[in-house]
Design goal:
By secondary structure, the chain is an alpha/beta fold. The chain is 16% helix and 26% strand.
Length: 245
Amino acid sequence: MGRRPRPRVTWVFGATLDGRVAAPDGTSRWISSQAARVDAHRLRAAHEAVLVGSGAARIDDPHLALRHGVSGTPPLRIVLDARAAIVTRESRVADEAAPTLVVIGSAAPDPGLPPHVEVARIELDVNGRVGLPGLLEVLARRGVRTLLVEGGPVLAGAFLQAGLVDEVVGYVRAAVLGAGRPLLDLPGVTTIDDLRPFRLVAADVIGEDVRIRMTARRAPRATTAVPQTAGNLAPAQPSEERPRP
């Protein structure tokens, strides 16, 4: 039996016009307007799993289930907690509103979570963080096909740095903060040549926000050129798209 393909990864964020996801004191409720939050929950409902890192888990204690009147099958809630020090029995993701998977390092202590909360152990990388390729392999083995990354700037930067982001959905609020936590932490950027362009798919006004949808630009695969003749020219077919909220 062949190896399962990794899940398709969508990075979603809500930010101000100047790229802030939280104020200097850490408050972020609410960066996005009510209409955008409802739309983001529809996006969450359209994915099989939703992921946050230890930073977001520590600061926000997110619930990651479906709210705002959005119905559907709740996604698998995944929290990266390399040292098994963030998620506890009192954490909101430890309830039974949706299935939960806590990912810890291979040598981390037992987190002592309720029996209904699953725990997966994964090798850490050289920076002491959960290795993303290993994480996606674990999810693929579980049959997860779509993953929504809702983590903060460090987790988003790690996925981008590894070239693992397939789609981006951003909710940009028509407002500025001027200071605070940035949208993205992407180390090693020194020049405009480090720009990472995406393919713009759509931009729509949602409440007080603009929802921007983008897909990753992949390097073209080397293929054998086929001479184009009148007999083999055909109109381009639109790519298949998953249901959208």
